[in-house]
Write a structure and sequence with these properties.
single chain, 447 residues, alpha/beta, FAD/NAD(P)-binding domain, Enolase-like, domain 1, 5-stranded parallel beta sheet, 5-stranded antiparallel beta sheet, globular, binds NADPH dihydro-nicotinamide-adenine-dinucleotide phosphate
Amino acid sequence: MNSHLDLLVIGGGSGGIATAIRAARHGARVTLFEPHELGGTCINRGCVPKKAMWLAADLAESQRMAKAVGFDMKPGMLDWATFVGHREAYVLRARTSYANRLRELGINHVPAPAHFVDAHTLRAADADYRAPHIVIATGSRPRDPELPGGDLAIDSDGFFKLDHCPARAGIIGGGYIGVELAGVLRSLGSKVDLITRGGLLSRFDADLGQALSGMMRAEGIYHHEGCAVRGLHRDDEGLWLDCSDHAPHGPYDQVISAIGRLPNVESLQLEAAGVKLGKIDEIITDEFEKTSVEGVYALGDVNGKPALTPVAIAAGRQLADRLFGGKPDAHLDYSCIPTVVFSHPPVGTVGMSEAEARKQYGNAVKIHKARFTPMLWSLAGRDGKFMMKLVCAGDDERVVGLHGIGPGMDEMLQGFAVAVRMGATYTDFLRTVAIHPTAAEEFVTMG
Ligand code: NDP
């Protein structure tokens, strides 16, 4: 029995590692269990390799626009295998840096799966580990389509294993992953069909999904909305989707399913500790990330709160500060979390959608919107408009939601999120002198 420990962390992804590092910095003796690569989904099969692909796709678009404005160049295809080599080298550097930090801080990394023996004991590789605090940060995995022929589809994990660009791709799902992969593949030369049971980005302000759908269509993505996929089959021509509209959808070289993610809890034997689960097996936690069992906590994708890397990291650091850093009230404030969807172009959003604001504030909601053609698009003769929206509430028109879609929105959002979080009003925005000529200035000049 390894019992001279303060904290056991199950899962070496963003949330688990952040918790372990912060706790160790406070002097806690920490053991972390991770049987797979350190870094979890974000580093290995999510944000980081996805952003690399997005950057490659962005370069492809820039090449085309450079030609359109007069550069003497012939936009070419990406050598996919070469780029994947660069991408994976980057991922490896990130993973190695994690391993080094754990070692430097004296965190014991056990490369084996752990499961509960009781509320304070874990078993991994035939050894028992006991500590007063256990953090579950095991993340999530892609939801299976559970359709006839569903195993013919790959998911986002499978996307990162592709060794070439599929010429024809069918994508199921209009959330973060569906629209991100649709944009990447289209920019890199695939013929892309995006099949969604509703509209795009249904959890965000409705104007964003509508604007994105229009821009995707203008770029040649076939977006078929309101269409339920009933199954998949393959014939000599390729893969086909069998849909509620009975129209032929295909043939495709790859079908990618992106219909949400499920928490990783199966192997934990949570029943041995008595940890309670919710509707989709997410671990139920309170605002302090406490589960139903004293001394057991859960954070990151596994607890069903916003499944975003920075959320998991922030929640883990707050928890470690609370348990070991002398800050008894430390916890993450989940309101006003900014998020970017790396579609082409990117979507950025923070705070309430118009519909949410109207529900909460009724008639005291005022909307300010701007639509304009980004300068480079105009120069290059590309169709489409940047869409920006401020959702304001109350007599002082406090900005309770800020949304946008257009080139550069990803980098623009972080600073504006600070203003929204601090309670800035529409007048504060208008009083801020614009930076000209930029796209961002429209947020402070919209009438
Ligand atoms: P999302 O929850 O974002 O979107 C799921 C999509 O699949 C929705 O369009 C949903 O439709 C649809 N869907 C759900 N069930 C079915 C079904 N049975 N049949 C057909 N369609 C279905 O999930 P993703 O998989 O795209 O991403 C998972 C999570 O990962 C995200 O929510 C996000 O938290 C995180 N992520 C974050 C990224 C970022 O920060 N940039 C990037 C990628 C992922 P409907 O809208 O109708 O419910």
